[in-house]
Amino acid sequence: MAQNVLYLDIAGNPQKWIDRNLAITYHAKGLVAWSYGSDSFTYRGGISRMTGQQVEITSATIIAVRGESKVQRWNRPPTLTNQALFARDLHICAYCGNNFPASKLTRDHIHPLSKGGNDTWKNCVAACERCNHKKADKPLEKTGMKLLYIPYVPNQAEFLILKNRKILADQMEFLLSLVPSHSRIRQNS
Question: pTM of this prediction?
Answer without folding.
Answer: 0.74
